[in-house]
TrEMBL record, chains A, B:
This is Heat-inducible transcription repressor HrcA. Keywords: Repressor, Stress response, Transcription, Transcription regulation. GO terms for biological process: negative regulation of DNA-templated transcription. Negative regulator of class I heat shock genes (grpE-dnaK-dnaJ and groELS operons). Prevents heat-shock induction of these operons. Belongs to the HrcA family. The gene is hrcA. HAMAP family: HrcA (MF_00081). Pfam families: HrcA, WHD_HrcA. The keyword Membrane does not apply. InterPro entries: GAF-like_dom_sf, HrcA, HrcA_C, WH-like_DNA-bd_sf, WH_DNA-bd_sf, WHTH_HrcA_DNA-bd, WHTH_transcript_rep_HrcA_IDD. Residues 5-71 form the Winged helix-turn-helix transcription repressor HrcA DNA-binding domain.
DNA sequence: CGTTAGCACTCAACGTGATGGAGTGCTAAC
DNA sequence: GTTAGCACTCCATCACGTTGAGTGCTAACG
């Protein structure tokens, strides 16, 4: 793969991303100053096709990049492009004006991403399982039930109704809360070990109360895992010519409805930094014509969640990458403003 | 509008709903046993068009119903069709198997509606503003803040961080809670009158504490108003031939993204029982080719929320109506199971 | 030996015209 | 009032020729 081939591949991918039409040797020669004639480019293109970087619908149509072609482009040929100052300002203004509560941060983040990239955006809101336990408190509800309120370090609160075992009084629950708070403080919710549980058991003493505690912890964590996904710009894909086919759109909308599936996908990419999955590299049916770019964001070293751009394989990788990188850093600052 | 005209109109609407193609006099004569020849039907159709119930793309295409035609059909000609026992069983099973927590009820309700009607469904989850106040409790957070936990009769819980005024101790807040609980019990959240507030003021005595109370009530209610909307079956509209045009689909998807708009629409129909808005009767741009059927559901006489079906004007009104009526009654039972 | 011009060939896209079918509207007969 | 008959309209479809973009190959060039 000599330099000229790379430049030609780059030119083809860029032109195709822009025009959405198969690109021919003549166009490349005209638009990019490669110093060679269309005939030479044709020869190189034939080579690139042989190597698997380009595809051909039929003789006499131009070439389009294959998944492998895009992959090479993304990994080695992507021109770095800093974000417009203008766009940065827009983003700041957007957050300033529209976000009032912490849960609006993610909704608006999704909006911004889809607005800037003209693609679908996905934002997986911070996950309590990754957050550190802060405290658990009980409120009396009636003589058989109490409300458990769980707080994490990152400042999220969840609540849950719990049954009190026969014979237990609300005071027992308050004592239980003290024990649990003492033992669990600082632990992340998904790393509560048997050892810690044993500790709690010993401190509580009473067996039936410990069972209740177990139940409470279990159910509280269950709520905590209930992470939220925000989707933005779903209508944007319709602007892309490759999705003028209603069948394809339907497949994608169907995928959007399967929230759990999307969450799982984003989950799988958690903690991997910025990652691009191109076309057929995606295993999920319906995403084979798409590329997914994901990034995970942190707050003081603590993993928070995932933001992603979903578009056609023909998406503007450079722009999306720049944006995600920017949002990545920025999001922590915005969240911090709402932290206590 | 004599009886024969009505029967012909009914036949045309039904056939058009089924086939999505303009219907001609011959088809009507063949498929419906009206005892008259196509020529007679043609004459009647010309009359119906004159009266505004039918439309005509060009000479020599069949007729399609106008908004007025659908309106008459829905109001006067709709054959009542009870729900299949089979479908009822399916719905029960669905709720049984998939719903574990109260907030999943609405998600699944949306799924069921879109699955049965093959259209988009909307479910506005119970609104705390309409719910009766049950109690408010505080939990200490640090020395300047507390967590306010608000509960309603219908069993929904919301929480919110509140600042404590300088000099106020957590004990003051607990006293405040007692007063507020005493005064507000049983009131619906959107009907807290100045008189009640005055009462609270007198009982609290301390002025700066009352201001804090006001702030707390205000902010808690603010959270309470934060109702949720569930959307289901968005991909279903793509199956309808009238939405094979990508531009139209785009307009609708765009509308789906404007959650607040949808909430407002459903809100406007709150408490009106079952209501159908047909085609151009809709004021919202993008919904002019659609019909919206809404119904509000109750729990022990208390208004809970709205369920709706959104489809092309050509939707199966009879089926949608039957289903919404059934869900209407059923939903209360399902919610009741999670009530305490 | 790499590069280039030239040329034949391929294929999609487009416009054109012919054809058929579904449906209407009108008129005259029943 | 109802119906059969008929001329007319319009859409959908297909076949057909044309055009233009693009390739692949070959032979000439520096």
């Amino acid at each position: 793969m000599d330099e000229r081939k790379q430049r030609i591949l780059q030119a083809i991918v860029q032109d195709y991303i822009e025009s959405a039409e198969p690109v021919g040797s003549r166009t490349i020669a005209r638009r990019h100053d490669l110093g060679v004639s269309p005939a030479t480019i044709r020869n190189e293109m034939a080579d690139l096709e042989m190597l698997g970087y380009l595809e051909h619908i039929h003789t006499s149509s131009g070439r389009i990049p294959s998944s492998k072609g895009y992959r090479f482009y993304v990994d080695d040929l992507l021109p770095s492009k800093p974000l417009d100052e203008e766009e940065k300002a827009l983003i700041d203004k957007w957050y300033m004006e529209r976000v009032r509560r912490i849960d609006e941060v993610f909704q608006e983040t999704a909006r911004i991403i889809s607005h800037v990239t003209k693609n679908v955006s996905l934002v997986l809101a911070p996950q309590m399982t990754q957050a550190a336990f802060r405290c658990l408190q009980f409120l009396p509800l009636d003589d058989r039930r109490a409300i458990a309120v769980l707080m994490t370090d990152a400042g999220f609160i969840e609540n849950k109704i719990v049954d009190m075992p026969d014979g237990a009084a609300f005071e027992d629950f308050q004592r239980m809360a003290l024990v649990i708070n003492g033992c669990l403080a600082g632990h992340t919710l998904d790393a509560i070990s048997p050892a810690v549980m044993k500790n709690i058991r010993e401190e509580i003493g009473d067996e039936s109360l410990f069972e209740a505690a177990q139940e409470v912890i279990h159910r509280s964590l269950d709520t905590g895992k209930h992470e939220r996904l925000y989707l933005g710009g779903t209508s944007e894909i319709l602007s892309q010519p490759e999705f003028h086919d209603v069948e394809k759109v339907k497949e994608i909308l169907l995928m959007f409805e399967e929230e759990q599936l999307l969450k799982d996908i984003l989950h799988a990419h958690l903690g991997e930094g910025l990652k691009v999955t191109i076309g057929k590299e995606n295993e999920v049916r319906g995403m084979q014509d798409c590329s997914l770019m994901t990034a995970t964001y942190h707050l003081d070293g603590e993993l928070l969640g995932t933001i992603a751009v979903l578009g056609p394989t023909r998406m503007e990788y450079g722009k999306a990458m720049t944006l995600l990188n920017y949002m990545n850093g920025h999001l922590a600052d915005v969240v911090k403003k709402f932290r206590w």
